[in-house]
Amino acid sequence: MMGHVSELAISGIVFSAIISIGLPVVLLILVKKRLGAKAGAAGIGALTFVLFALVLEQILHVVMLRSAGDILNGNVWIYAVYGGLAAAVFEETGRFVAMKFWMKKTLSKENSLMYGVGHGGIESMLIVGLTCIGNLITAVMINSGQIEAMMATVEDGTGKELALQAYSALWTTPGYQFYLAGVERISAIALQIGLSYLVYRAVRYGEKKFFTAALGIHFLVDAVTIILSNYMNVVVLEIVLLVLVAALLVWVKRLYGEEENGAKEKLFPCKVERM
User: Fold this and answer.
1) Structural contact between residues 142 and 10, judged by C-beta atoms closer than 8 angstroms
2) Is the distance from CB of 119 to CB of 46 less than 8 angstroms?
3) Which of 19, 110, 172, 263 is most buried, most CB within 10 Å of its CB?
């Protein structure tokens, strides 16, 4: 027998859908209007994420899961290290390549932030936004009795059982948890914007330490997320992620301000001959 998806769960799904799809659009408009960044940088960020994270990285995952799936899935620490490294290497390398070659003529601190909006935005829309839309449609169909009527026509078997298990997650999961997907996307988009500025500094000024920092921070956040999700409440996990990302943004804001105020000249002084 089908359960009932609570109003709290449905409102959480709607909230997360609005955040995951609407926030990137709002940020794109704000960064373009207030900083004068080019929207094309967001497009490059989005395409780079698709190529490096959704195509190239996934090829690696297929190969690794086929050859060492038991090892990876059998130990959360090994899986965390592998997952964190894979995400960090592919996404930060993609970011570096995009800024070094595809944004050669338009690379600026403003456009680096816009790149981050595109990178984090498309990730948010594809991974969370589309899922939320699908969950919302399914929830409405469950509450209206359409799913139950449809499943009544399906013969009993493994396929039917798996489908029912998937549907049941919508009414057995605590309603408040559906809000967390949207909260997590706020952290994730902010993270991508911050990392984009660090890689920009590495490309624009040759500061390799910032590319190394981007790799390390990306790895740390992803690995910590995987590990802590197995040991603590999801709400506490989201708070930890917010704190980590907030610390990154404080650092990036300081670096951005230094560059904006001309501090880069102090970091890379040029010898001026006296007349």
Assistant:
1) no
2) yes
3) 19
**Which residues neighbour 185 within 8 Å (Cβ) at sequence distance 6 or greater?**
16, 19, 20, 23, 124, 128
Q: How many other β-carbons are positioned within 10 Å of the β-carbon of residue 107?
A: 18
Contacts of 151 by beta carbon, 8 Å cutoff, 6+ apart = 2, 160, 163, 164
pLDDT tens digits in sequence order for the chain, 275 residues long: 679 999 999 999 999 999 999 999 999 999 999 999 999 999 999 999 999 999 999 999 999 999 999 999 999 999 999 999 999 999 999 999 999 999 999 999 999 999 999 999 999 999 999 999 999 999 999 999 999 998 888 888 888 888 888 899 999 999 999 999 999 999 999 999 999 999 999 999 999 999 999 999 999 999 999 999 999 999 999 999 999 999 999 999 999 999 877 655 444 444 333 33
Q: What length is written for the chain?
A: 275
- What is the C-alpha separation between 180 and 168, in angstroms, rounded? 19
Residue pair 112/200 in contact by the 8 Å Cβ criterion? yes
